[in-house]
Amino acid sequence: MRKTIQFRAIASSCLNSGYVLACHPQIDPRFDTNEIQEAIVECGDLELRPAFRRYARLWSYEDNATCLRLDTGTFHPVRIDQDGPEHMTPDRQLPRQSAMVHIDYLMFGHFMYLEYLVGRGSKHTLFSLDGDPGLSNACLASWKERFLGGRLDVAVLTCNKSATIDEKTLLWPKPQSSNGRLIQRIPICIQSMPGRRGLLPTAFCPRE
Questions:
Q1: Which is nearest to 25 in space by CA: 11, 14, 12?
Q2: What secondary structure does DSSP assign to the chain, as a single string?
Q3: Which residues of 179-199 are buried (b: 16+ CB within 10 A; e: fewer)?
Q4: pLDDT at 88
Q5: What pLDDT is attached to residue 186?
Q6: Distance CA 17, CA 202 (A)
Q7: What per-residue confidence (pLDDT) applies to 172?
Q8: Which pLDDT score, from 0 to 100, does residue 132 have?
Q9: How far apart are CA 112 and CA 57, in angstroms?
Q10: Taking the complete model, does pTM exceed 0.85, yes or no?
Q11: CA pair distance 200, 203, nearest whole angstrom
């Protein structure tokens, strides 16, 4: 059976300007899967839990096999065990050229880069994130000091991508006033996150 190689990517853009700050694909061209597999066997990574492995960032054939043995409902609606493997289906395979990066490490690397890029120069930052497992954890961990200091707001947004325009219009909430500002109507649902402050429906938006 012919199998496909599917890569994901994480991107962030500025709400005010539309400028794409970063886009990181789930691939590392410096290695290939067979090289990583040999290195994993040589250093004894397979005897350790994933988080403590030297090559934990990259997919191995064992990671792929572990995913295929899991029940199909393990990853729905979210991946409960953040230390567990990601979703992989029998019709997909790992690349022979280059190596695939585990999405968790890609998330952390993405937000760490954003913190380095713009975090130091912004007094207050707003993030709107989709509901992918681990995305909010990566954001809050990478921006920990700003979050604890009250300089970071995070909103987790969900939307029905298959809904028609009319169906989305019916879901639009009425404008509400918040701290003297008007929150515009948008076709999304804001998920409450206990412990996170100021959940506003915005994309990445640094404020002076």
A1: 11
A2: ---B----EEEEEBTTT--EEEEEESEETT--HHHHHHHHHHHTGGGS-GGG-TTTTB--HHHHHHHHHS-GGGGSS--S-TTS-----TTB---SSSEEBPHHHHHHHHHHHHHHHHGGG-SEEEEEE---TTHHHHHHHHTHHHHHTT-EEEEEEE--TT--HHHHHHTPPPPEEETTEEEPP-S-EEEP-TT-------SBEEE-
A3: eeeebeebebebeeeeebeeb
A4: 63
A5: 41
A6: 13
A7: 63
A8: 77
A9: 15
A10: no
A11: 9
Query: Is the C-alpha dihedral spanning 65, 68, 74, 78 positive or negative?
Result: positive
Q: Given its phi and psi angles, is residue 98 left (phi above 0), alpha (psi -120 to 50 degrees) or beta?
A: left
Residue 158's φ and ψ, nearest 5 degrees, are -130, 150
The rounded average pLDDT for each run of 10 residues, N- to C-terminus, in the chain (208 residues) is: 76 88 90 88 88 87 72 48 56 79 91 88 84 84 88 80 73 52 41 37 39
Residue 117 amino acid letter: L
Could you give the CA distance from residue 63 to residue 59 in angstroms, rounded to a whole number? 6
d(CA 87, CA 70): 9
DSSP 138-179: HHHHHTHHHHHTT-EEEEEEE--TT--HHHHHHTPPPPEEET
